[in-house]
């Protein structure tokens, strides 16, 4: 399964979409979710999401700048990378707490529909555990963390992508100059 998640700074999962098989690209999942609509509404309140390089450049989705040419661009990438680690920690905590979601814990031998339900249930239980401050007893694992690799998206609309890159660049100049 390819799971799209949005988490808050405190690692609460505010959105989990587990409807698509692993072969489906992140950009496709994003386009077919409620996130673009919600973020369109929230953008006037200066709310952005951070995404990795597998996502398209959108006015409300901050992705890494490729080959930054200025110190401001470098600082943007550094700050974005530090902040993005929050979701990587949330993924790691979720997979460590619910070993059925981690490759070393086995795999789920159920129908795809049931696997999706289990993933969403684990996300809900993750939030409940955080809210109730359930202590987490971490076992030593072989990899200690989760690393995701995603290929860049080829945009179908070059002009829209250039406009979104300009939006990101204006944000970089405003906040990282």
TrEMBL record:
Region (Disordered): 152-177
Gene Ontology terms, MF aspect: hydrolase activity; metal ion binding; nuclease activity
Cited InterPro entries: HARBI1-like, HARBI1_dom
Cellular compartments annotated: Nucleus
Cofactor (UniProt): a divalent metal cation
Keywords: Hydrolase, Metal-binding, Nuclease, Nucleus
UniProt-recorded name of the protein: DDE Tnp4 domain-containing protein
Cellular component GO terms held in the UniProt record: nucleus
Record field: compositional bias (Acidic residues): 153-165
Family as reported in the entry's similarity comment: Belongs to the HARBI1 family.
Domain of life: Eukaryota
């Amino acid at each position: 399964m390819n799971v799209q998640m949005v988490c808050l700074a405190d690692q609460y999962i505010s959105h989990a979409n587990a409807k698509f098989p692993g072969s489906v690209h992140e950009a496709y999942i994003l386009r077919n979710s409620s996130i673009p609509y919600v973020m369109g509404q929230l953008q006037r309140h200066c709310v952005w999401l951070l995404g990795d390089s597998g996502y398209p450049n959108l006015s409300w989705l901050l992705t890494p700048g490729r080959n930054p040419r200025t110190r401001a661009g470098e600082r943007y990438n550094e700050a974005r990378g530090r902040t993005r680690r929050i979701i990587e920690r949330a993924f790691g905590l979720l997979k460590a707490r619910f070993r059925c979601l981690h490759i070393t814990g086995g795999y789920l031998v159920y129908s795809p529909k049931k696997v999706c339900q289990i993933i969403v249930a684990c996300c809900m239980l993750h939030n409940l555990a955080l809210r109730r401050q359930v202590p987490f007893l971490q076992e030593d694992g072989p990899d200690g963390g989760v690393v995701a690799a995603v290929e860049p998206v080829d945009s179908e609309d070059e002009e829209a992508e250039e406009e979104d890159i300009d939006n990101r660049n204006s944000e970089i100049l405003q906040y990282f100059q």
